[in-house]
Input
Amino acid sequence: MVTVHCFFSGGRDSALACYIAHRVAKVKGWVFRLIHINTTIYLRETRDYVYEYARWLGVDLIELKPNVTYEDLAVKYGYPSLFRNRWCYHQLKRAPTLNYLRQNYKPGDLMVLGVRGSESLFRLLRYDRVFTDRCFGKSFCVRAWYPILHLTDVEVNQLIRKFNIPVNPVWVKVGISGECLCLAGTTEQTLIKLFRNYPDVAKWFVDLDKRIQANRRKKEPSYPLALYRKKITLSEWYERLLKQSQIDDYITNYQSCPFSCMVNDFA
Output
């Protein structure tokens, strides 16, 4: 009996990919497993959505956890990067994934991921087939299935609406899944959306940033990738963002005030 192991992050792509894989598994009579990796760094709304999605799909949720937290690793190593210092991927995602597959995957099974080639040039070059062998080192390989590999953003959104797949509110507010907020590939624009929509999360990251900088053995601070070129720490950047927000609010209120209001202010 084939088992489909679908990894679900709480993002749009994996929501669609796991829905497709679940429908195929039902038709084929295969076993379907919905797997979520708790990376220890996430938005609460995404966590709630993950469980809501599993209930909507009518399946049990298998939750995997790494042996160490993002917080501990960030304080020890500084912020991760997409190209170097990739501890976020290796420790929080790859390790629990590999541990699960070694225990549960058998020949003939399928590992499903919501990978899309159009997301980046790296993925476009690395992922070129919907069905392929994915190897973890030289000793362990699995058969991988990427159901939405060749879909565009527009097509993904259209299919989510067509199949009435529940929507994660984080997609609308920030445009990301809200899981694994390691900041390795987060742009500055996404940071702004994240911190303005979730001030409690912003405060948590600012406090963490101060601990990261205090623990640096080298003189140079550690910067999230989005702020690396600016050479500004996350806590410093957030202070500027707060000031900018205050200025934006002032301008908005000033423009919305009738002329007579401004006259009275100076009378």
Q: What stands out?
A: Residues 3-172 form a domain with the Rossmann fold fold (CATH 3.40.50.620). The chain has a mean pLDDT of 88.
